[in-house]
Amino acid sequence: xxxxxxxxxxxxxxxxxxxxxxxxxPGRVNLIGEHLDYNxxxxxxVAMGEEVRVAFAPADDxxxxxxxxxxxxxxxxxxxxxxxPPSDGGAxxxxxxxxxxxxxxxxxxxxxxxxxxxVDSNLPAHAGxxxxxxxxxxxxxxxxxxxxxxxxxxxxxxxxAECLARAEHYVGTQGGGMDQAAILCxxxxxxxxxDFFPLRIERVPMINDVAVVVCDSLVxxxxxxxxxLKYNAGPASCRLATALVEHQLREDFGGDIxxxxxxxxxxxxxxxxxxxxxxxCMSAIPDARTTVADVGRRLGxxxxxxxxxxxxxxxxxxxGFRLRARLRHIISEFRRVETARDALLAGEAExxxxxxxxSHISCAEDYEISCPALDALAAACRDAGALGARLTGAGFGxxxxxxxxxxxxxxxxxALAGSFYRRIPFLAERPPWSVVxxxxxxxYV
Length: 445
Prior knowledge:
Layout: H1 3-13, E1 21-32, E2 44-59, E3 63-68, E4 76-79, H2 93-106, E5 114-121, H3 131-151, H4 157-167, H5 178-185, E6 190-195, E7 200-205, E8 210-216, H6 225-253, H7 264-267, H8 274-284, H9 292-299, H10 303-311, H11 323-346, H12 349-365, H13 372-383, E9 388-392, E10 399-405, H14 409-418, E11 433-435, E12 443-444
């Protein structure tokens, strides 16, 4: 649906409101750098053409009313207050609540205006393309538009990205800030290298004769229930690993060395090389599996304290956590991001494709975020002519991103339709793939 139709529908649903304003927030495709952001290490996403669109107008009753063009999402209304209670887990309005409460806190709001919103989207949900974060960003921009009209207060894009990364923890995910930064700071024809703590942006030109193609595995990557626990096991186990690496540093060098996150090994005062960081991490975690009891013995803590401090609701896997493998992924993926940025600048498409392939193997074998459908789809993409293919997003379903020479794109898609997708019915007007238009970040319209 275009913006004109969105406006007409808004006016039909909310006839007493002022004429609506419009904003948009694109999805994002992470080219490379999976599960690095919450460790304080860089990622390399792009903003894409598919987007969430919002029509909005102020309301004088202090309530936020949400409607969606997709009838699968029910109307929701909630009071805008200093502390907004969440709806039941998985409710779509929680992402809007996260945005509103995040802005209220960032601006230290004393008044809480109401708002009417109508949402439309051509982003597939649960496909690893950050449709949920796009909704958070679009809702935040709408609310800022209402808030600014009354108070003349605004946030720059970097500050807003940091604010919304924190705000999205409201829905239970413990991710970093990649999605929000890419959605807000994307640039047409450019990848966005995002560094964290503090947030920094470098825009890197894409290679002209190579297309980025996203293919849906058709396995939902929904971050609710058990899937949320699987996702949050990544940040939780990395916190656990950081504590063990910090302990090893103190044993090796003495003093009160502190690590807030794994990225501090490179970017903090330690300034380790990749090899030094690798050797330290492997020394700190020598075994393939590490139990909570192992961590307690090493740190001189009870198992219960370990769980409360670092794991929260994340359960311990049978036999313990594969912390050593997770660290191996993080260290190697960080190197791949840096090399991928250089490959883009040099126009080395084949090198970038090789990095995609190595990243998928690492995500699957070391970080354990793949699934049979993603593995099969990545392999099918390579067989169809991709220079490289890898899962993108949180994992456990969702999409595969491929690097395909532009002159082979049509044959690539035809081959996929006859291989991976041949037994899966889909509508011709909504195929399970997208040739990415690398687009600008979120904006008012």
